[in-house]
User: Fold these one by one.
Assistant:
Number 1:
Amino acid sequence: MTLNVFTVVVLFASALSLAAEFRVGFASADITPPVGWRRAGNYTELISTGVNDPLMTKAMVVQDGGTTFAFVGNDLCSVPRDLTDLARLQASKVTGIPVGNIVITATHTHGGPEYLGPLRQFLHQRALKANNGIDPHEPIDYRRQLIERWAAVIAVAWSNRQPASLEVVIPRLEGVAFNRRYWMKDGSVGWIPRKGDTNIFRSAGPVDTDFPFLLARRAGSTEGLGSLAVFAMHTAVYGGPAFGADFPGHLQTNLTAAFGPKFVSIFGEGCAGDVNHLNPFDPDPQHWTNVSPAIGRAMAQVALTNLPYASAVKPGLFAVRSAVVMAPVTPISYKEINAAKKVMETLDQNGAAFLVVVDAWRKIFQKQFWERHDGRLPQEVQVVRFDADTALVTLPHEIFTELGIAIKAASPFRRTMVVSLANDLDFYIPTRRAFEEGNYEPTTCPLEPGCGERLVAAAVKLLQELKP
Ligand SMILES: [Zn+2]
């Protein structure tokens, strides 16, 4: 009798594992705005002059049994909640994928368009006033177009699903990323010091050299369908006046050369809030025209040379879970808001120092968050369990690297990938210590200190709940 029950259980388990397989689909679409649209990545007005490389939205849909998940990467500096909410809802209606199982992220390319936030709002309103209600830099409803393209790219990736194998490898990518905050010899914390600055004492934070690479292949074949690569470094190398996708665009080009023209390479920026490519100890000028392609090439090379060591992701345990953290927004007075509005007005008249402009930009967000969310900003944390050893965490905003490392260190999964700039805006989430140290990133953050540590705790809790 006991033997019979045992046999039945074993047979049932093997039937389940036979049925379990991944079905994976990819899709991409062009989201380059008309040339002449404002360029992002600065606190001044920049006008695009052309297209260095097309800006793309790319989706990967993964299904295993009854669970489906969609990851969307965008060649944009950031994505705002009001648009991602609508696109996720629309995509969910078409595909049946639950809204919580859809994530829309930005690569954080600074070569994308300026289409959201206090700076765009100010420049757009000023243009409307000056041109009888027409902003010559915004000839189309780009925000509506984005919602439609995101929903459509998810739907196409969903309908492209096919039996596929997934494999993952996390090699290291050394020598390209640097913590951009430094303890200076005068006791201050410096931000992106000049090359050769003799006042630099040492880096004020770590870098994370993990380079997770998740590859999907057609089932029973070596043919690559698409990939998700993650690295914790600012996508802020590109510096041309035309629209540009920066190194994720070059990663796509290099992987296309290896896997064929239909291959879709998605890049997710890791926790890179305080990390960029600039090395102040290197006298080389590090011009973007060389550095951006070199990083994309290095990423592809590291991924491809390490694929022989990749682990197969085992189907059968695929699951998605999310949580919402309510982050206290720093209080603000009307007097402060009015002063901030005045600063924005003198923006391009060299009227205000950089950190004064950043401070004003943040105060306008603070006001919006108090008005819209009554002082508590909802922040969504999503966790995907690919298998017993592999998990993906997505977080909103620009997270300090130390916080991403803390999630990985506490994660019960051997392989944990963390992607930032998910579903919401690009202000920084510093560590508590960095709030005390000050300078650029903490000046951008409308939330109370402790916001980063709370996101870490929420992510780790979900990871622990999902660990089989
Ligand atoms: Zn940034």
Number 2:
Amino acid sequence: MPDNPNETCPCGSGKTYEACCRRYLQKGLQAPTAEALLRSRYTAYVRGDLDYLVDTDFHEVDKEATEAWMRSTRFYKLEILKIYKGKPLDRKGRIEFKAYFTENGEKRVHHELSDFEKHKGRWYYSGGLAAE
Ligand SMILES: [Zn+2]
């Protein structure tokens, strides 16, 4: 994907990419909240940035499987439904969201309750439960 800092951020925040997720994906800044991390991880899916997903996952990522899945999917909308904690002074956070994507051309929705934990001042994705 071309790197245009003035494009609207894929995460749906309404900000430009430059003012939103780019600083976490490309400038090495730490997401200050669980929400910022979730948004930037979503943007990493949109942009095919596997390294960022690996770096921000508390657990080991199956890179090959993730990469193959990213190749067959195209994310087009993130909807954040509920945010529990995950603020700069919290150590844990949980976010309910829906991510809309096409997989091999078919429209799908991923609805998840994601957990985030902060370790040594950095937020990590620590797991998720599929929600209905
Ligand atoms: Zn963003």
